[in-house]
Amino acid sequence: MTKLPLEDAVARIEILNDTLIYQGFRRFESYRLTLHTPGAPTISQTREILRVGGAVGIVAIDPAQQAIVLLRQFRLTAHVATGRGELIEIPAGMVEPGEDPVVTARRECIEETGLDPHEVHPLFTCLVSPGAVDELAHFFLAFVDATDLPQHTGAAGETEVIRPFLVPLDEALATLDSGAHLANGYLRMGLMWVALHRDEVAERGRAWQAKWAPVAAE
User: Which residues, 6 or more positions from 113, have their beta carbon under 8 angstroms from its beta carbon?
Assistant: First the structure.
């Protein structure tokens, strides 16, 4: 059994060439490199990367109703990959250059749910698809009062149709093992975190209600 730390490590590589293949909604690049791995032969690789950068995913829960705010939104990639383009998702969005992901998370929660959490709690960070995309996702927990959840949301000027809806938290978590067609990775990872931390979620929800519920009622 290995005695190395169970964590990612710095790689020793030499980038020989990087080329912009296409600049559209996303940046697509090609790299030629030499990889030096301890105990293995040196190899050359050519790889393409879709550059996305930082992103956030927000698990938005109404603690009073014990429900989670989810979104339904069209995604072309889902339509092409599975034939089910109307994805169910959690609120999410891209981090602007130089922006703190905490700021991004609150902004995206407001834009996509119409609800202000006032504060967000960092959960974990992960690479969504490291074989081809550099998207680094920062997950957050947020609490909201979803009494007046709007039917449609989205930032002005963005060509998207977002439809928020509320689901009992127990019902949402049950879908993880139900065989339901839920392909969005952000959604599944967010629900899995909640399933593993129900007591923590409940405690933080009560603290949020004590602090912010009076503000929301004004």
Answer: 60, 69, 71, 91, 144, 146, 149, 150, 153, 164
Those residues whose C-beta lies under 8 Å from the C-beta of residue 211, and which sit 6 or more positions away, are: none
CATH homologous superfamily, domain 54-217: Nucleoside Triphosphate Pyrophosphohydrolase (3.90.79.10)
Helix orientation angle between 185-196 and 198-217, rounded to the nearest 10 degrees: 100
Per-residue pLDDT of the chain (218 residues; tens, 9 = 90+): 667 788 999 999 999 999 999 999 899 999 999 999 988 999 999 999 999 999 999 999 999 999 999 999 999 999 999 999 999 999 999 999 999 999 999 999 999 999 999 999 999 999 999 999 999 999 999 999 999 999 998 766 667 889 999 999 999 999 999 988 999 999 999 999 999 999 999 999 999 999 997 765 55
* Threshold 0.90, pTM exceeds: yes
> Which residues, other chains included, contact 128 with Cβ-Cβ below 8 Å and sequence gap of 6+?
55, 135, 136, 137, 185, 186
Longest dimension (CA), the chain: 66
Q: What is the pLDDT of residues 17-43, one digit of tens each?
A: 999 999 998 999 999 999 999 889 999
Neighbours of 7 (CB within 10 A): 5
Distance CA 121, CA 141 (A): 5
Residue 149 contacts residue 115 (beta carbons within 8 Å): yes
**What residue ranges do the domains of the chain occupy?**
12-51, 54-217
Give the bridge partners for 100, in sequence order: none
